[in-house]
Specification:
alpha/beta, 6-stranded antiparallel β-sheet, 5-stranded parallel β-sheet
């Protein structure tokens, strides 16, 4: 908009408290963790994108406390985060936000990617818990230009980590943020006065900077876990990958088998401009290698691939390519999710309608049934 095998863990006691208690509690956040009396420190920096070249906007790269290539599932804590029956909602509101701290900001894309996308880890101290598929609100510093004397409006960002965060301790959350810049169509030059206030604030942040959070919010993109053998078809463009990264880490990276042992099929379609624009590609390829029966990964690279008509390859073209399989899976109860810019949906809907008609089906009737069965999940912005 990464995994480090820790071995057996020392017992940790924690509890999920009512909203009021959460507000009043100041959990201490430690940079060092102890497991079986062994001191664990963050690992050296791991580049989420191998190629890194300085650009006009250079995200600060700092030490990440995780690796991306471990096969064994990673222990997480506190497991009590899996006990709640309902997702946390709006624990912090715009008038009383939570002050969190930036842990790290890392550039995700290579030098040939159009624009810049950053992975931002935020320490919320365990005080702003969330579930996979939810969003945080961020209030950027400064004054609202349309309402002098008032703070900036809240911007919503899908959370790109599981409830345990990238450090697996329930105290952090991650965001995937593309820096919004504006280029004058006549001069072709950037106009800083029209840049995205919040995205630039986040991408320019440094470790230790404070950030105002609201939320968490959202229920439409929650990962249904009542059937651990279900099929999940995920369609993302750009930073719309955020909630799906959280799903996939929960399915394939974290040891949460006591509450959720995934045995179904997860199928990811990711649309970006080119290879350098791929997000979390190493993580996804890892799941493909380690869980070939449970994970499929298809990429649509609009500037590098051609569709069957010789035009640019978009996610809807990939959907059409696998339409028979997708429709069959939907008929069998698969969940389908869409996340990204709202401009992605018309093309996708047109493709699905055309495919349905070719199959002798009514897309409107089918869509209505998918929504009724709660198989259809859309979050676009």
């Amino acid at each position: 908009m990464m995994a480090h095998a820790l071995g057996s863990m020392a017992p940790v006691s924690a509890s999920i408290m009512p909203d009021a208690s959460l507000r009043k509690t100041g959990l201490k956040v430690q940079n060092r963790l102890s497991f079986d009396n062994k001191l664990w420190m963050p690992l050296p920096s791991v580049n989420l994108k191998r190629r890194q070249t300085p650009t006009q906007y250079q995200c600060k790269v700092v030490a990440m406390s995780v690796q991306q290539t471990a096969k064994n599932k990673v222990p997480v804590q506190p497991l009590e985060l899996d006990n709640a029956k309902e997702p946390p909602l709006n624990l912090y509101k715009p008038k009383e936000p939570y002050t969190a701290t930036i842990v790290s900001v890392e550039r995700l894309v290579g030098s040939n990617a159009p624009g810049e996308t950053c992975h931002i880890v935020i320490d919320h101290g365990g005080n702003v818990p969330y579930w996979e598929g939810q969003s945080y609100g961020v209030i950027p510093p400064g004054e609202n230009p349309k309402k002098p004397g008032n703070p900036n409006n809240v911007r919503l960002y899908s959370i790109a980590s599981t409830r345990y965060g990238d450090s697996f301790d329930g105290k952090t959350a991650s965001l995937c943020v593309r820096r919004a810049v504006y280029y004058d169509p006549e001069t072709g030059k950037e106009d800083p006065s029209k840049k995205g206030v919040c995205s630039n604030f986040l991408c320019d942040s440094k470790p230790g900077d404070k950030i105002q959070l609201t939320g968490p919010s959202g229920k439409i993109m929650l990962l249904p876990e009542d059937n651990p053998n279900a099929t999940h078809i995920m369609i993302a463009t750009g930073t719309g990958i955020a909630p799906f990264r959280g799903y996939l880490r929960r399915m394939f990276m974290e040891d949460v088998t006591s509450s959720y042992k995934f045995g179904g099929l997860s199928w990811l379609f990711l649309g970006v401009a080119n290879t350098d624009s791929l997000l979390y590609d190493d993580e996804f390829n890892n799941y493909l290698k380690n869980y070939p029966d449970n994970f499929r990964y298809d990429k649509a690279l609009s500037r590098e691939q051609k569709n069957k008509s010789g035009g640019k390859m978009y996610v809807q073209d990939k959907i059409e390519e696998y339409s028979d399989e997708i429709f069959k899976l939907l008929d069998e109860g698969a969940h389908i999710y869409f996340c990204g810019l709202k401009g992605m949906m018309p093309g996708i809907q047109d493709t699905l309608k055309r495919v349905a008609e070719q199959r002798g089906e009514s897309w409107d009737a089918k869509l209505s049934q998918l929504k009724k069965n709660k198989q259809w999940h859309v979050e676009v912005y």
